[in-house]
Specification:
single chain; five-stranded antiparallel beta sheet; 11 strands
Length: about 150
C-alpha cells in the first residue's frame, strides 16, 4: 500500500503487525497504485514523476535492488489472469503479455479499448473481473461482452 500520494510502497502481513517499507522512491518520484502479483511473485506499481505523461509502470520483488521498468508513459497497472499486464496510457487501456516470474513483458503493449469514459482504476478492475475466464487476448484486443454476464459476488 501507499500511505500518501508522495510516498514509498509499504507491506503489512495479513496477520497485521508493523508496516515495512519496500522501496524508497528516487528524489522527485513516488510509487503509486500497487498491484500485488499472484502467489506473491512481486508487485506492479506506477512510478510517478512530473505527471501522468511522465509516469512509468514498474515491477519489483523482494531481494531485487531496483524495480524493473516495464512501460514508459503508463498508469494504474493490473495483472490479468490471462497473463497480461493492463494499464492506462493517454486515456487508452493497453494490454501486453507479461511473464510474472521474470517480471518482464514478452511482447509490446497494444490498445485494448480506445476511449475510456470512466475512472481508470474502476475500469481496470472491471476488465480484470470480466476477463477472468478469457483464455488469451488477441492483439489488438477489443472487449465485447454481453451485459447479461453474471458476475459472482465476493
Amino acid at each position: 500500500y501507499t500511505p500518501a500520494s508522495h510516498a514509498a510502497l509499504w507491506r503489512v502481513t495479513v496477520a497485521g503487525g508493523e508496516p515495512v517499507r519496500l522501496k524508497q522512491p528516487a528524489e522527485g518520484e513516488s510509487h503509486r497504485w500497487p498491484h500485488v502479483l499472484p502467489q506473491g511473485r512481486g508487485v506492479l506499481f506506477t512510478v510517478w514523476r512530473l505527471g501522468a505523461s511522465d509516469a512509468r509502470i514498474a515491477a519489483w520483488r523482494d531481494g531485487h535492488a531496483e524495480p524493473n521498468v516495464l512501460v514508459e508513459h503508463g498508469l494504474h497497472p493490473s495483472y490479468l489472469p490471462s497473463g497480461h499486464l493492463a494499464f492506462i496510457r493517454s486515456g487508452t487501456l493497453m494490454v501486453a503479455p507479461f511473464d510474472a516470474d521474470a517480471l518482464r513483458l514478452t511482447d509490446p503493449p497494444s490498445p485494448a479499448v480506445v476511449v475510456l469514459l470512466v475512472m481508470y482504476p474502476a475500469l481496470v478492475s472491471m476488465l480484470n473481473l470480466l476477463l477472468g475466464t478469457t483464455e488469451r487476448l488477441a492483439r489488438p484486443f477489443f472487449c465485447v461482452r454481453s451485459f447479461e454476464t453474471t458476475i459472482p459476488s465476493a
